[in-house]
Specification:
- The chain folds into two domains: about 240 residues, SGNH hydrolase (Rossmann fold), CATH 3.40.50; about 400 residues, no CATH class.
- Strands 4-5-3-6-7-8 form a six-stranded mixed β-sheet, with helices on one face.
- It is built from 33 helices and 13 strands.
- By secondary structure, it is of the alpha/beta class.
- The N and C termini lie far apart (about 70 Å).
- Helix 4 packs across helix 11 and helix 16 runs parallel beside helix 31.
- Helices cover about 65% and strands about 5% of the residues.
- The longest helix has about 30 residues.
């Protein structure tokens, strides 16, 4: 009895935890999140330029995070690009001199010692015609007023950027005297008047830097009068003077200093870490709009106006929405006017028996179930596309607007391995597979699932900078491509179906999401590199298989020579890949024509990224074909029997294979820890990756126990691995994977849980939509394929033209 109750409770819990219920929870949760952020955005505004100057916190011990946006760490060439033919003036005391030296160091790429004090300084970069000057003005007085007047009158070259700050020297000189504070206010008001005149001139930006706190216990005796309470009073004066001014107040410097994990050396001057952070805050504020760094969202503005491609989606999805309403009403009317089937059968029986009610023949409306089914099918497709349009809008809001905050990635081994450890929970969802064959469907789904989850952890933790982790993730990509070669070769070799319908189905399924993302997010096809990669290799496998003579396992059984011919085909594949792999120039010549250039070039018109991706794993797809060919051939010859949960080989040979497999994986792992840099690692990876791939397959399949088991948890994720991989770019990560999307600020763990839950639900919904649309657009009927596929493409082209 207890067992029955437990089983019933488990079944009820499973039903309640269905994906449908998860989506029912995810949608209102997401709606609440978007509304809350929208209300905050409307009421408070969210100028990310102001964010740089006002707020932020330390994400790690050495990484500053502005509130809600991502900042870029500038390199010398980028700074030169930003300040080309520009003059920068840093005005103030010794703290401002620190900023000057930091800026010069960042521009030149070489450390500059703070050795010259109490005097003006200047640096000229002849390559970019950049002038950076420091004006020693420790007190705000008439000398400062005259400096600004000289810039206004043109007696001195006018700076394009002025950063001014001063107070500590005055506090020390006058020992915190009240009259000195009042005089500071009078003098700062005079300076502010001149600053307002200057900032109104074209091409002039200006900041007043507030004073950061001191570490009182570290101050020398002569500086003991510089207290934080005194600094606050001087900052309050700056707030009051510049309240209605056009001069921006730089407030975040107080936080960078106050929360610094590194103490000051003398209590007054900031640690080098803080100065460099302030320097990069300044650079992000002034340079981001012009340099447009890919990993920054602060102070860049919204990507308006909409592009031609983005505009084209508006009428398309609007058409789908109204088409859905029309089909819903059409189906409802048909169901309403159509008589009850039972009554129709009863009336027909009465006619047959000569029993006519009231002496009249009943009017029987002919039923048209096929028409109704066709209408319902079209309705489902239009509804799916309407949902897809809403999802595309969500993608755009997440990653092309400032509605949702973005956060910079930060890597730590603890974070990486804790998230990695959570994945081990998937092994507790074990189940017996119904088909214990080598690389059966359950197993390959599981394989895709855990690989995809590892890749997600890799991306969200920013682990790409760690070479051993990077190289092991490269193996996961190779494993995906191995499955491409293995799976498609197995299908063509076993089934012998080489029709165009199969090609259209696979290509549509792979590219449906990416096609619309390219339009919605204004990104080239090659940006989503994995889909172009697997699409290309699928077509290569198809071409290899259809080159005459076409061979299958059935024809090979009748003609033994077909085994040899198939071997020559695969060898030819490797030869071609090797020849092309010798020269990037030859490779580019093969793709340097329209539309190949349009599809595979990125960024701009460069094919280098495509070359890098192609040549990195150019042999693994052919290896997957070869592995499938050898395995199926051995099965056909009766050399291997894998239709039962027993070991493929005897006990001794099984142990030898397992040991050899572990060693092959160990060799690659050793290589990943010993290679000095990514380029050298990648050179060897092309061939060396075959070892861990083979080792994993043998460990997973040779022992019967492992081959007959699989994790339903990982397999579930594996079924939508494509959607997870692509959708993460914009609705889990942010800024095209450069950062992290933030739903709940300041609670990173809770944010990851909520964002991951919503992300998975949307990915699953995209998978469902893709399957629905694919089934309708590319059915298993050549005539319908031609009609619907051409119709679908024609609608897209017309809407593109209509949106011009």
């Amino acid at each position: 009895m207890a067992g029955g109750v437990l089983e019933q409770s488990t079944r009820e819990l499973t039903e309640k935890c269905s994906m449908k219920n998860a989506k029912r929870l995810a949608f209102p949760l997401l709606a609440v999140i978007l509304v809350l952020h929208g209300v905050g955005y409307y009421l408070e505004g969210h100028d990310t330029c102001d964010v740089l100057l006002t707020s932020g916190y330390y994400l790690t011990a050495d990484q500053w995070q502005p509130k809600g946006c991502m900042m870029h760490k500038y390199k010398p060439g980028e700074i030169g690009q930003c300040f080309q033919n520009q003059r920068v003036a840093i005005v103030g005391d010794s703290r401002m001199r620190q900023l000057y030296y930091s800026l010069v160091s960042q521009l030149t790429g070489h450390a500059v010692d703070d050795v010259v004090i109490h005097s003006d300084l200047s640096h000229t970069d002849p390559s970019t015609n950049t002038f950076i000057e420091f004006f020693w003005q420790p007190n705000v007085n008439d000398s400062t007023v005259e400096l600004y007047k000289s810039w206004i009158k043109g007696t001195k070259p006018k700076p394009n950027l002025i950063v001014h700050g001063a107070a500590t020297w005055t506090i020390k000189k006058f020992q915190g005297d009240f009259e000195a504070i009042q005089q500071y206010k009078v003098n700062l008001t005079k300076v502010a008047t001149e600053m307002d005149k200057l900032v109104k001139q074209p091409d002039v930006n200006m900041l007043w830097m507030l004073q950061g706190p001191v570490e009182y216990m570290l101050l020398s005796e002569e500086r003991k009068s510089i207290t934080n309470s005194q600094i606050d009073m001087y900052n309050d004066i700056a707030f009051e003077v510049f309240h209605e001014s056009d001069i921006k107040l730089w407030q975040s410097v107080r936080k960078t200093a106050y929360f610094s994990p590194i103490p000051s050396k003398d209590g007054l001057h900031f640690p080098a870490l803080v100065v460099d952070i302030n320097c990069h805050l300044l650079l992000n504020w002034i340079c981001n709009k012009d340099v447009d760094p890919a990993d920054a969202t602060c102070c860049k503005g919204l990507p308006f106006p909409l592009t031609f491609q983005q505009k084209s989606l508006i009428p398309f999805f609007t058409f789908c929405f109204f088409g859905t309403l029309f089909m819903y009403i059409r189906i409802w009317r048909k169901k309403t006017v159509q008589p009850n089937p039972a009554m129709c059968e009863e009336g027909a029986g009465q006619v047959a028996n000569g029993h006519l009610p009231n002496g009249h023949v009943p009017e029987l409306e002919p039923r048209r179930p096929n028409v109704l089914n066709d209408d319902e099918e079209l309705y489902n497709v239009l509804l799916a596309l309407t949902k897809f349009g809403v999802i595309m809008l969500y993608f755009y809001l997440c990653d092309r607007t400032d509605l949702l905050p973005k956060e910079q990635k930060h890597f730590s081994y603890i974070q990486f391995f804790v998230l990695f450890g959570y994945l081990s929970l998937g092994f507790f969802f074990g189940r017996e597979t119904k088909q214990p064959t080598v690389l059966n469907r359950d197993q390959t789904d599981e394989w895709k699932g855990w690989m995809q989850l590892v890749i997600l952890v890799y991306h969200i933790t920013g682990a790409s900078a760690v070479i051993p982790i990077y190289m092991h993730v490269r193996v996961l990509v190779a494993m995906y491509l191995f499955q491409t070669g293995y799976g498609h070769f197995s299908f063509f070799w076993k089934k012998g179906e080489f029709g165009i319908v199969r090609v259209c189905q696979v290509m549509f399924r792979l590219n449906f999401l990416v096609f619309f993302l390219c339009l919605t997010m204004d990104r080239p096809y090659q940006f989503y590199y994995f889909v172009p990669l697997v699409s290309f290799w699928f077509l290569v496998v198809y071409v290899v298989m259809i080159i005459p003579p076409r061979m299958t396992v059935k024809t090979a059984a009748e003609h033994q020579s077909h085994y040899l011919l198939m071997t020559f085909k695969i060898i030819g594949f490797f030869v071609v890949c090797t020849l092309i792999g010798f020269s990037e120039v030859l490779f580019q010549s093969l793709f340097d024509w329209w539309p190949m250039l349009k599809l595979f070039a990125w960024p701009g018109t460069s094919l280098h990224e495509w070359w890098f991706r192609w040549q990195l794993d150019r042999y693994i797809v052919g290896y997957g074909m070869l592995f499938a060919f050898g395995y199926i051939s051995l099965i056909s010859m009766g050399k291997i029997k894998d239709n039962n949960p027993t070991n493929l080989f005897n006990s001794i040979l099984t142990i030898i294979v397992i040991i050899a497999s572990i060693l092959s994986i160990t060799v690659y792992t050793y290589h990943s820890f010993t290679c000095p840099n990514k380029p050298e690692c990648n050179e060897v990876h092309t061939l060396l990756s075959l070892l861990p791939v083979t080792g994993f397959i043998l460990i997973r399949n040779v022992p019967g126990y492992f081959r007959s088991k699989y994790s339903t948890f990982f397999a579930w994720f594996g079924k939508m691995s494509l959607e997870l991989f692509i959708a993460q770019y914009h609705i889990w990560l942010a800024n095209d994977t450069k950062g992290i999307l933030v739903f709940i600020p300041h609670y990173p763990t809770l944010n990851k849980i909520v964002s991951s839950f919503i992300f998975v639900c949307i990915a699953h919904e995209i998978m469902t939509i893709t399957m629905t649309v694919t089934k309708w657009v590319v059915p298993n009927n050549m005539k319908l394929v031609f009609k619907r596929f051409v119709l679908f493409c024609a609608i897209l082209v017309l809407l593109l033209l209509a949106s011009v």
